[in-house]
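[SOLVED] Predicted holo structure with zinc ion

Edit: marking solved, answer below. Original request kept for reference. I posted the sequence and ligand SMILES and asked for the 3D complex as structure tokens.
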Amino acid sequence: MEIKYDAWAFFADYNKHIKFVIYAWLTIRDFIWEQGLLTDAEYKKVNNLIALHDDSKMSKEEYNAYATWFFPTEDVDRENFKGEFKKAVAHHKQANLHHFESLRNYKGPWWRCYIIEMICDYIAMGWKLGHFIFEYYDEHKEEMGLPKEYQEYLDKVLGLLKQPRLHMIAEPISKDYIKYLELTYL
Ligand SMILES: [Zn+2]
């Protein structure tokens, strides 16, 4: 099925999300470091993960389906297209360990890095959609099915992030704050 989509709208949305993930990491990274929540090697790894966050959205397995589903320029028969879209979502989650659906089966050494990337993703989604991180986490915690050690670490980090100096992670992002981040870091 060939359906036309608005590629510009897709990229604008993608770009906004990636920027917000970067802003989220810039917002929490000093605190994460001060609290000793990552080793030196893990911290460097998170920097790389953030730089390539959701990179697979550009793959042929995902791009077409996501753009068509979210930004069609003609009527989409969603019932008909659902299978293709679900395949793309499954590919995305498989290719990205910051999603709990794949992280729960991950046995490698970098799981804390993926959890921090997941947290940045949730902060960014909160800024974009107005459904903020702590609330979102409470609603999805039960279905995550993460190994106990992973879940405990996630709980611990989120608990620590709930503090006045980081209030901006759980409220609408302001233009002034974006300006501050860009002048300070970029
Ligand atoms: Zn993702």
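OP edit: The first helix runs from residue 7 to 34. Thanks to everyone who chimed in.
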